[in-house]
Amino acid sequence: MAPSGKTQHHKRIEFLLQRHSLNDDSQRQLLEDLAKLDPTINKKYLAWILKHYRAGWRGTMPQRERIFNNLKRFEELKQFGGKKAFVLGLKLKGYDPDIFEFDPQTLAQLIRKTCSTLAAEKERRRIVKGELVLCSGAEIAYQDQRFTVVRIRSESALLKLSRAGRWCTRNSIYFSPWDDESEYELPFDLVFEKGRAQYLVNKPEVKDRFNRGLSDSSRQEILAITRRACDGFDQAEWQVNRAIKNKQRLSEENERRLIAYPGFATRYAVFVLRRPWPAFEQEVKLNRISPYCAVDYAIKAKRGRWQRAEKVIFRTKGSLRQYSEFFGLPLPPTIAVGKRQRMVELAVSNDRDRDLERELASKPRLQSDYLRTVAGMASNRVTDAQRIKVRSFFVAPRNQEPWEFVQALRLIGLLSSRVYCLEPLISKDPTWSLEYAIKVTRRRFKAGEVSITACPNAAVTYAVHVIKDRWFVAEPGIRQDSSAWAAYSRAFRVPF
């Protein structure tokens, strides 16, 4: 037993010495040294440190500092509340995780993930409360004593800061930068009025945080403020246009800032410098430059191969071909580019590529890529022209047709006519049977009615759109679902 009057720190060391039969002074000194890695007063994590030390962990000085910091953060998170902290980070047993469930590496991963999750949750709450939060793709474009304008130039920033125009739980505007039918385009402006409200601005439209319009005078005031706004993108565009017009170089500081906008930097190098720009080549972030901008810089400014950016250039067929032809290079034998190029050519031509067809028929992932290529063609005429050809090698007689073929055939619209060899497979699934009956047969699909009756909602849709009358065989199954039975009763005036 340890003598009375000793601190909990010394009592824990005495306990560990007795438990592990460590009696010599060197072992006691070792425990004293390891205790320095435990940030708690009573050294509650000393047994955990000793366990991993005896298992072979030694740790350099920086690693020991990280262990100290991780244990300190672990203790703080437990004091903060296990349920709030650790359930957000990792799914663990209970709300008070045991330190012995981790080793130094997994402990560091837990702390890192939990802290990042808590930071994201804290940031989300600040956004919901209407506080000013910045992220990648958003920048303060104007600020005075009353208004602050944040200009949003990326979809991810828009989704994060304004939930794509959705304020609180109210109705949302529809936005997609990739959809031609969308009436909204980037950038958006998020306007903070000091002590009052927030507004989301896109072109002439202004909405408050409850998705309500403003009076005409308030709307004109907000629009006037946004017209004064100017972020880094606007400044770079103005500087490049002025430099091209005056045929004068920018200052060294402005050139360095311009590198953050690769599109404008490429125009500046092509039309103003007209020679290689070493700072741009080395410092530009390749994930932000487009393949065609990289090709333009290599051909028109550098006038030589830009090897650092070739991975970006090889991503698309057009930039790859333009770059290779200009510098007299053979097309790189990259599987992804080569197959995708052959897929596009196969989709738009009337010729057959037997080797690629055999490869497509044996690999479901390539089938999906090819069919999406065909389905994504701009013209329905092109897609229609491929149906007979695709049918010849995707619906060829086999011992057993893979289920993925049904989805593939639907993707390219082949199911506009009956495919008898696939009907046994289609009949096994209620959703496919229902769609096949409505869009293809346009009459009762007897083979699929057994599976449809097992799904109440599908049975109601089948009765309404295909049978167009009461379906007595399916009524017992439909009654099991109250919402489906309510819809069925309304459709055929059956007593509820």
Written account of the structure:
With 496 residues, the protein is mainly alpha-helical. It folds into five domains: 8-128, no CATH class; 138-230, no CATH class; 236-329, no CATH class; 333-408; 427-496, no CATH class. It has helices at 8-19, 25-35, 46-54, 61-89, 104-129, 155-162, 216-228, 232-246, 252-258, 262-273, 278-283, 291-302, 310-313, 317-327, 335-348, 354-362, 364-375, 380-394, 404-411, 423-426, 430-441, 449-453, 456-467, 475-479, 482-492, and strands spanning 138-143, 147-152, 188-193, 198-202, 205-208. The chain has a five-stranded antiparallel beta sheet with strand order 1-2-3-4-5. 26% of the residues are buried.
What's this entry about, in short?
With 496 residues, the protein is mostly helical. It is 57% helix and 5% strand.
Characteristics of this structure?
496 residues, mainly alpha, five-stranded antiparallel beta sheet
Count of the domains: 5
* DSSP summary: helix tally: 25
Regions with little confidence, pLDDT below 50 for 5+ residues: 82-95, 167-181, 333-337, 376-383, 391-402
Largest sheet: 5 strands, antiparallel
State mean pLDDT (0 to 100 scale).
75
- What are the secondary-structure elements, in order, as H or E? HHHHHEEHEEEHHHHHHHHHHHHHHHHHHH
Structural class: mainly alpha
Query: Helical content, roughly?
Result: 55-70%
Q: What is the spatial order of strands in the main beta sheet?
A: 1-2-3-4-5
For the terminal residues, how far apart are their CA atoms? 79 Å
Kindly state the number of beta strands. Answer: 5
**Rg, nearest Å:** 33 Å
Global shape:
extended
Tell me the fraction of residues in β-strands, as a range. Answer: 5-15%
